[in-house]
Amino acid sequence: MIQSSATPEPTRFSDEEVDRYARQLVLAEIGGPGQQALKRARVLIVGLGGVGAPAALYLAAAGVGTLGLIDDDTVALSNLQRQIIFATTDVGRSKVESGRDRLAALNPHAAIETFATRLTPDNAGGLIERFDLVLDGTDHFDTRFAVNAACVAAGVPLVSGALGRWNGQVGVFAGQPCYQCLVPESPPDAETCARVGVVGALAGVVGAMAALEAVKIITGAGALLTGRLMLYDGLAGTSRVVKVAADPACPICGSAHP
After folding, report:
1. Is residue 86 a contact partner of residue 187, using CB atoms and an 8 Å limit?
2. Are 41 and 66 a contacting pair, CB within 8 Å?
3. Which of 32, 142, 223, 248 has a Cα at 20 to 30 A from 75?
């Protein structure tokens, strides 16, 4: 469970909130304390794309108190096949503004903070240090590296999700190993969904798995994918989990890093 430096005040829920979260409140692994932790939590979602869009919906529905949305893009018609947070009428609108409206309609108890900009090494630290947890679903490796470096520096856990064609992956990085231990540098032939395609429902699978890891981190439920990577093959209907080794020479979290 994400811990605060001070003893948190008990969070009071309205009757409407108790009814809304009833199916989680009866779970032994979440209950009242876990639901209170969700309401206190601040989660930054980097990129409202195939992973971030469904993850945002599930985190808002779960009762995360504050969601930050960062994306500099606008909604395109080609997004709607998998980014189900948007509607046809949103085409041309800012993704973070459209996402804010959809999440507010889903759960008015969630506070939504929007950042209509691209996350870069220059602004990553100032943004990420304001949140308890980051969920990254971007398809730009420069952005992923900037997110990872800022999370390591701030001591903020990172949930990372990616997908393409019929395959997806989800991992949790908190200290060592970090994301850059897994991907030391940007692949020269990096694939994007625009280049290789992606089946729409896969985004829901990976986004939901990423949201589930975020809920587990916040509430302290279950075994996390920390230092592990779940690989899902939608075409074969199989999944496996592999360990991610820490790289002592990693420039972000390695022993040589100051």
Report:
1. no
2. yes
3. 142
